[in-house]
Amino acid sequence: MTATRLPISPPRLAFSIVAAAVFTVPLASPVAADTADGIADLRADLDALLADPALEGAVSGVAVTSLSEGDVLYENEAATPLIPASNIKLLTSAAALDVLGADHTFSTTVSAAEAPAYGRVEGDLYLSGTGDPSLTGGAFDQMAAQVAAAGVTEVTGDLLADDTWFDTERLAPDWEAGDEPYYYAAQISALTVAANDEYDTGVVNVTARPGAAAGDPVDVALDPMAGNLSIENTAETGAPDAEATADVTRAPGTNVFTAAGVLPAGGEPFSDLRTVHEPTDHAVHLFAAALEEQGVKVRGDIARGTAPEDTVPVAERESQELGALLVPFMKLSNNGHAEILVKAMGRATAGEGTWEAGLAELGPALERIGVSESGFEAHDGSGLSRTNQLDAVTLIDVLQAVSDEPWFGTWEASLPVAGVSDRLVGGTLRARMQGTAAAGNVRAKTGTLTGASSLSGYVTAADGEELAFVVMNNAYPGAAPRGVQDAIAVRLAEFSRWSPTTSGLSARADESSSAPDAELECSWAGTC
């Protein structure tokens, strides 16, 4: 696969012309002196926060720009290419809005070679998808009900899944093989099933519940269950004081889910998300079950096939517009949505629903938005790839440039909001910066892989000044330094050009290094 590679922007001066000018104004100007003091205090405080022990030996690309005043307030290693983790989604989502439009929808069609007659579809019935990430079990039920409402009771041929809108490459080439069972690395298909109302695609909900007493079998369920999935269950109910060791795994290349281990009697059930192998097969088998429930009998097989161009629609479904789908995508850092958008961009522009074609659109899209010298290397759209590279200069330019786009309000509203408990508002920031000046204020994208963590977005400063900021940390020695990132964001929320801010910063910096953390995006690890 050919990676998108654009020139890395040259380093920019840490002081803008405006900021530098303040230091040349005579001291007789108290307003200018106050401004200089406010900016100087901010820079000193951010330097202190980046000296936190949690960042010993780390590389931190940091940039802060005032959208209100147009000047650069702070930069640190801002031109150094770093692993951005999920901050790459800021580029993916902005490019998708430029290429596809905020009103883009994903269509799913059920069609036949001829219109149904006398309750029958003569020949094959096709289920064709274009990548809709919101196809829940209920959506398949609704399409099956449409088929039945058209008077169909029998399909004489096969039920065939057409996923040719995208290619058949299910996983990005440089994703780590060990991630494949976990929902944040789900396989990508133009026909896929969303397991829940948050639209986690290509996965199933796995639940294992203990029996009433020790020795009883454990009840294991997959949802949505379909005929292409099977369960092998050796899990047991243990004594009430037994250690819970139950897990449900799937062997690579199969859809055999194996439950093993122990759940204590009276204890909590095991619950998690697990990926399925070949999401297209899961989708068509789920639709077959929905048709059967509606009294529609398929005489032939359930398989894959390409629908002829002149088929007659029997049922159709349009997704919500992209602007609405951005909310679960960005708030919860949904990797599957990001990769679907990459392939959708490739299909829209090059007629090829591939990673290569879609990633090639990121650079031109950013150029159209106004990022003239972008420096990044993208190998996926989600940030799961550790070969992605992005510098803070480029990302801060993106945050500035998109603010002039007509869809900016929609895009900004999709960002997590610090300290707001509602998952579809606070998202991956719902438990961070609570009780601070940043709560309900900072709107930013998170991102964490082992050794790489980021926080970038917007904050309103104390005097109402709008700031854009980027914090990308790589190669830190311990847990992800989210405490440091949060302290930076809080300090920006407290920033005033006109009055120095010194309250409590040293204590906050000391506390930041011991903030609880995980080595993955919190939504991936189930910790937010």
TrEMBL record:
Which top EC class is named for this enzyme in its record? hydrolase
Q: Is Electron transport one of the keywords UniProt gives this record?
A: no
Q: Which UniProt keywords apply?
A: Carboxypeptidase, Hydrolase, Protease, Signal
Q: Which InterPro entries match?
A: Beta-lactam/transpept-like, Peptidase_S13
Q: Which range is the signal sequence, renumbered to this chain? A: 1-28
E.C. code: 3.4.16.4
Question: Mind listing the GO molecular function terms for this protein?
Answer: serine-type D-Ala-D-Ala carboxypeptidase activity
A Pfam family (short name) is Peptidase_S13
Known SUPFAM superfamilies for this protein? beta-lactamase/transpeptidase-like
Source domain of life is Bacteria
Q: Which family does it belong to?
A: Belongs to the peptidase S13 family.
Q: What is this protein called?
A: D-alanyl-D-alanine carboxypeptidase/D-alanyl-D-alanine-endopeptidase
Question: Which species expresses this protein natively?
Answer: Nocardiopsis mangrovi
Q: Which gene encodes it?
A: dacB
